[in-house]
Amino acid sequence: MIDLGRINKLEILRDTSVGLFLGDEEGNDVLLPNKYVPESYEIGDKIEVFCYLDYDERPVATTLEPYIMLGEFRLLQVAEINAYGAFMEWGLEKHLLVPFREQRIKMKEGQWYVVRCYLDERTGRLVASNKLDKFLNNDNVQLKEWEEVDLVVTRQTDLGWEVIVNEKHKGLVYFNEVFKSINIGDVIPGCVKTIRKDGKIDISLQPLGSRVLEPAANKIYEVLKENDGFLALHDKSDPETIRDIMQMSKKTFKKGLGTLYKARKITFKEDGIAMVAEE
Q1: How far apart are CA 129 and CA 85, in angstroms?
Q2: Does residue 30 sit within a domain?
Q3: Based on the structure, what is the number of domains in the chain?
Q4: Are residues 188 and 225 in the same domain?
Q5: Model confidence at 207, in pLDDT bands (50, 70, 90)?
Q6: Which CATH number belongs to the domain containing residue 49 in this structure?
C-alpha cells in the first residue's frame, strides 16, 4: 500500500518520458516526475519518496521531504489566503490547505501557526487543522513517569509552556522548570514528570531525580573544558547567575558538582571551580 502523507520505500518499475513509475508489493504504482529523478538509478532499485496528491488530485511522489507529515503537529507559515482557506508553506510545490472551518482563529498571510496534518476522508486529500485539541486525548494516557517523550511546543500559558506529547496528548512544562530558551513550534525531547488523576501531564525538559546527576556533571565538565579548565561559579553562587550561565537550577548544579568532586574531576577555589589535571 502506498501511504499518502508518509515516506514510502518503493521499487523503480519503469522509466517513461514523464518520469519513473514506482511500485509497492501490492501492485500499486505512482509517478516520480522527472524533476525528482535521481542522477543514477537502475530498474528494480528501491527509493524513498514522499507521496501526496498533485494539482490534479492524482497521487504523485517526490524526493523532497516536507516540513510536516501525516499525523504530525508542526509550525508552518501561511503562504496565501484564498476563497478555500489558508495555504501553508510545507516544503512542496503544492501548498497545504487549512480550510476555514479548521482555523481556530482566522489565519493571516505571513503568520506562523502550529497545525496538524491529517487525511480528509471525504476528499482523500492531505489537509491541516489549527484546531489542535480535537486531535489530543488525555483520557487514557499510556505513559509512565520518567518515560522519555517527543514534544511540540504549542503556546505559552500563565503557568508555563503547553506542549503536545508524542503527537497524542497535551502536557505542560512549568516556567520554573525551564532553563533554556524555547519557542512555539520547537520540536524537542522531554520526559514525563507526573501524570495527574485528571489526566493532565507535567513534563520536564531534562531527566528527573537521580538521572539528572550524570548529565549535569557532564555539562559542567564540558563547560570547564571550553573555558580553559576554570569556571567562576561554585556552590554558593547566586541561583540566577547559575541559571543564566549553565541553564540549570542551583540544586541540579550542586548535585553535578558533587558528582565531579567525588570523581576527583574538580577542585574548589575561592572564586570558582577548576578541573583537576589528569595523571
Answers
A1: 11
A2: yes
A3: 4
A4: no
A5: low
A6: 2.40.50.140
Confidence of residue 180 (pLDDT cuts 50, 70, 90): confident
Residue in the block written with cell 511522489: 61
Asked whether residue 233 carries a pLDDT value surpassing 60, the answer given is yes
**pLDDT tens digits, 37-90:** 999 999 999 999 999 999 888 999 999 999 999 999 999 999 999 999 999 999
Domain span including residue 169? 148-205
Residues 6+ apart with CB under 8 A from 276: 264, 265, 266, 267
Beta strands in the chain (DSSP E): 7-15, 19-23, 29-33, 46-53, 59-62, 73-82, 85-89, 96-99, 112-119, 126-129, 148-156, 160-165, 169-174, 187-195, 201-204, 230-231, 266-269, 272-275
Which residues is 50 bridged to in the sheet? 7, 62
Flag whether 99 is in a domain. Answer: yes
* Residue 52 to residue 60: CA distance in whole angstroms: 6
* Whole-prediction pTM: 0.76
The size of the chain, in residues, is 279
Residue 7 has pLDDT above 50, yes or no: yes
C-alpha cell at 37: 529523478
